[in-house]
Amino acid sequence: LIRMLRSAEQRDVLQLLRRAPEETRPFLVEAAVATQSVASLAALSDFLDFSKEPRSLLERFLYTAAFSPRPSGELLHLVLDKLAGKHLAPEVWETGIVAVGSLVGKLCQQKLCGLQQVVERGVETILRGLRGAEEEPEMVISLLALGNAMLPETIPTLLDHAEDGPTAVTAAATSALQRFPAPHISSKVKRVMRRIFHQKRRSYDKTCRLAAAEILLDKHPLPMDVINILLATSEMETEMATFLLLKVQSSLR
């Protein structure tokens, strides 16, 4: 089917999508996304109406785009166009934002960050969603998207939310920071992680403290950080202390 779609004209793909029985449309949408030909993406653009289509079909399209192993700039462009300026169901918007982060991250992994306009538009869409978020869940979704994108320039934003946000936001931001490779974990990042783990400014949830400790232990650990984390385990509950001790032992091995 994918081979056939790669050689099909836009009107033929569109006709196939429109005439297909409802139960087979999700499968055909997945195939069209996998094809990633200009004709298939144009047909999807014409076919998918984010204000009318069933939520399940829209989410299937967005999930398929997000999990695409080698996405194109055109696919990201299509997703952004479908999310722009519409009153969408919250679930569809959330899935879309996470998909945008995934697509941006994969394009940059393919050394295609040079597709400046579409990549910048994707990042700005995520950041705009974060700035405009009024509820914790909305902020968490945008932070998950930034974690998927893994762009070094977003690290300061993640640090701000990691240290100063409410519990769910701090957890999402520290989790996003964990995804960055060691070269991007600067001394500034480590200072913030130390403050979170040792609770220098306020109390943090156990999950947030563990994530901060893992960043300190996994990304070129400094001897003093290892020592201080080990000393801190004496004041922790058994489960958390055991986890950190095993983490240190694993690193030593």
From TrEMBL:
<dbReference type="GO" id="GO:0005783">
    <property type="term" value="C:endoplasmic reticulum"/>
</dbReference>
<dbReference type="GO" id="GO:0016323">
    <property type="term" value="C:basolateral plasma membrane"/>
</dbReference>
<dbReference type="InterPro" id="IPR011030">
    <property type="entry name" value="Lipovitellin_superhlx_dom"/>
</dbReference>
<dbReference type="GO" id="GO:0005548">
    <property type="term" value="F:phospholipid transporter activity"/>
</dbReference>
<protein>
    <submittedName>
        <fullName>MTP protein</fullName>
    </submittedName>
</protein>
<feature type="domain" description="Vitellogenin">
    <location>
        <begin position="1"/>
        <end position="234"/>
    </location>
</feature>
<dbReference type="Pfam" id="PF01347">
    <property type="entry name" value="Vitellogenin_N"/>
</dbReference>
<dbReference type="InterPro" id="IPR001747">
    <property type="entry name" value="Vitellogenin_N"/>
</dbReference>
<dbReference type="InterPro" id="IPR039988">
    <property type="entry name" value="MTTP"/>
</dbReference>
<dbReference type="GO" id="GO:0005794">
    <property type="term" value="C:Golgi apparatus"/>
</dbReference>
<dbReference type="GO" id="GO:0042157">
    <property type="term" value="P:lipoprotein metabolic process"/>
</dbReference>
